[in-house]
C-alpha cells in the first residue's frame, strides 16, 4: 500500500506489518507518526538492552562518527580492541570476531567448528543441533535450525546438521559419530516459545562433549548481554563452552554481533574469515557503551529483580485466567496461553498501546528493556488482564 506520506509498497513484502510508522523511541516507549505512544515489551526482539535511543549509545555513536567510521577490517581500530578485551575479561573466552548480525556470527561459529574438524578431527564436520532451535536465516543457519517452517524452504539445505531433543542427553549421545565435530544450542529456545535448556542438561552436555572431544557452541544471540540476569546465559549452569555467539542486545539497537572462542577452539587461518564492516569502530563504540553499563553488578541485580517481578505478575495473571506455565529466565519470559489465541492477544494489546510478541500460537513472549521500570511491568500486566478478559469472553460467546 502507498499513501501520500508513507510509500509502504516500496519495501519488499516479507512479513505482515500493521499500518503504523514509528518515528521516535525513548526507554520503554515508542511513538508513531500520529503521536500515539506504545509501551514496548518486544524491544526489537530483545535488541534494545537499554531501551530505545539510550543516551549512552547515542552519545557514543555521535562521538565516534565525528572521529572515524571505518578504516577497513585490514587495520585495527580502538573501539573494537576495547570491546573485545571487555568481552574476554567478562567471559571464559580468549578471542573475539565481530560481525554484523546474529546469523553471521552463527555462520562463523559453524565455519570455525568445521575448520577445527578439518585441522584436528580427520575432517569431522557434522554439528548436532536441536529440534525447535533457531540460529538465523542464512542457508547454513536455517539448516542448523530445528524450526519446522524452515524445512520446505530454499532446498537443498546445507548438509551436516543432525537434530537432537532438548534436555535429552541420550538423544545427543545416539547422534555422535566419527563425523561429529560439535554440539550447538541456545540456552533458551526463544523462537520455539521460550523453552530453556536445564542447568543439569547443560552440565551433562558439557561433560559429554569433553569426553568425546567435541566443541560445545552456545548461541546466545538472544540470551546474552544480561537478558537472563547474568551477563551470559551459560553462567547459570556453571559451565565453560568452547564457542559463543552474541547479537541483538550487544549493540543496544545497532547491527553488531560477535563470535567468541577459547584459545583451544580459535583455529581460523588468515583469509578464512572476514567481512567489510565487521568490527567497525562505529558499531563497536555502541557495543562498548552497552557492555560497560550492563556488566555492572548493580545493573544485573536490578535486571534480575525486574525479571522476578515480571515472572510473579505473570504467574498471578495466569492463575486468574486459568492459563499455563511461565517459562524462561530473567527478562526473557513466556506465558503459556493453553489455547491458540496469541495473535488475537497481540492485536488487542497493540490496539491498547502495548507491544508484545507471540512466537507460537499458544505463547506470549516478553523481552522488555533490561532497565524496565516496575510501573511499566505493572502497566503491561494490567493491559493483558483486560485483553485476556476480552478475548476469553469473545471465545466463550463464539
Automatic annotation (TrEMBL):
Keywords: Amino-acid biosynthesis, Aminotransferase, Arginine biosynthesis, Cytoplasm, Pyridoxal phosphate, Transferase. Its cofactor is pyridoxal 5'-phosphate. Pfam families: Aminotran_3 (PF00202). Gene3D superfamilies: Aspartate Aminotransferase, domain 1 (3.90.1150.10), Type I PLP-dependent aspartate aminotransferase-like (Major domain) (3.40.640.10). GO terms for cellular component: cytoplasm. Pathway: Amino-acid biosynthesis; L-arginine biosynthesis; N(2)-acetyl-L-ornithine from L-glutamate: step 4/4. Binds 1 pyridoxal phosphate per subunit. The modification N6-(pyridoxal phosphate)lysine is found at residue 248. InterPro entries: AcOrn/SuccOrn_fam, Aminotrans_3, Aminotrans_3_PPA_site, Class-III_PLP-dep_AT, PyrdxlP-dep_Trfase, PyrdxlP-dep_Trfase_major, PyrdxlP-dep_Trfase_small. Belongs to the class-III pyridoxal-phosphate-dependent aminotransferase family. ArgD subfamily. PANTHER family: ACETYLORNITHINE AMINOTRANSFERASE, MITOCHONDRIAL (PTHR11986:SF79), AMINOTRANSFERASE CLASS III (PTHR11986). Homodimer. This is Acetylornithine aminotransferase.
Amino acid at each position: 500500500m502507498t499513501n501520500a506520506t508513507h510509500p509502504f509498497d516500496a519495501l519488499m513484502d516479507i512479513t505482515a506489518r500493521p499500518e503504523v510508522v514509528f518515528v521516535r523511541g525513548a526507554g520503554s516507549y515508542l511513538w508513531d507518526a500520529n503521536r500515539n505512544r506504545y509501551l514496548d515489551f518486544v524491544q526489537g526482539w530483545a535488541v534494545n538492552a537499554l531501551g530505545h535511543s539510550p543516551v549512552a549509545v547515542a552519545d557514543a555513536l555521535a562521538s565516534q562518527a565525528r572521529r572515524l567510521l571505518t578504516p577497513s577490517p585490514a587495520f585495527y581500530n580502538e573501539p573494537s580492541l576495547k570491546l573485545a578485551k571487555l568481552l574476554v575479561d567478562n567471559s571464559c573466552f580468549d578471542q573475539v570476531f565481530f560481525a554484523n548480525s546474529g546469523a553471521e556470527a552463527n555462520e562463523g561459529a559453524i565455519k570455525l567448528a568445521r575448520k577445527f574438524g578439518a585441522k584436528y578431527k580427520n575432517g569431522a564436520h557434522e554439528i548436532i543441533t536441536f529440534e525447535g532451535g533457531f540460529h538465523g536465516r542464512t542457508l547454513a543457519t536455517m539448516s542448523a535450525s530445528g524450526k519446522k517452517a524452515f524445512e520446505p524452504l530454499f532446498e537443498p539445505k546445507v548438509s551436516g546438521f543432525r537434530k537432537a531433543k532438548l534436555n535429552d542427553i541420550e538423544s545427543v549421545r545416539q547422534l555422535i559419530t566419527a563425523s561429529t565435530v560439535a554440539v550447538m544450542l541456545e540456552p533458551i529456545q526463544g523462537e520455539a516459545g521460550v523453552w530453556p535448556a536445564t542447568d543439569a542438561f547443560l552440565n551433562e552436555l558439557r561433560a559429554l562433549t569433553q569426553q568425546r572431544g567435541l566443541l560445545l557452541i552456545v548461541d546466545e544471540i538472544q540470551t546474552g548481554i544480561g537478558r537472563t540476569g547474568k551477563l551470559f546465559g551459560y553462567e547459570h549452569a556453571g559451565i565453560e563452552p568452547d564457542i559463543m555467539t552474541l547479537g541483538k542486545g550487544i549493540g543496544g539497537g545497532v547491527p553488531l554481533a560477535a563470535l567468541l572462542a577459547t584459545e583451544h577452539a580459535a583455529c581460523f587461518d588468515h583469509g578464512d574469515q572476514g567481512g567489510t564492516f565487521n568490527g567497525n569502530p562505529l558499531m563497536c563504540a555502541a557495543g562498548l557503551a552497552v557492555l560497560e553499563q550492563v556488566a555492572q553488578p548493580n545493573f544485573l541485580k536490578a535486571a534480575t529483580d525486574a525479571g522476578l517481578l515480571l515472572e510473579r505478575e505473570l504467574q498471578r495473571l495466569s492463575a486468574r485466567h486459568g492459563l499455563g506455565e511461565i517459562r524462561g529466565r530473567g527478562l526473557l519470559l513466556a506465558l503459556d496461553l493453553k489455547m491458540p489465541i496469541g495473535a488475537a492477544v497481540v492485536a488487542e494489546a497493540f490496539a491498547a498501546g502495548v507491544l508484545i510478541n507471540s512466537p507460537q500460537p499458544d505463547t506470549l513472549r516478553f523481552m522488555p528493556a533490561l532497565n524496565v521500570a516496575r510501573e511499566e511491568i505493572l502497566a503491561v500486566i494490567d493491559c493483558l488482564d483486560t485483553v485476556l478478559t476480552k478475548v476469553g469472553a469473545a471465545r466463550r460467546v463464539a
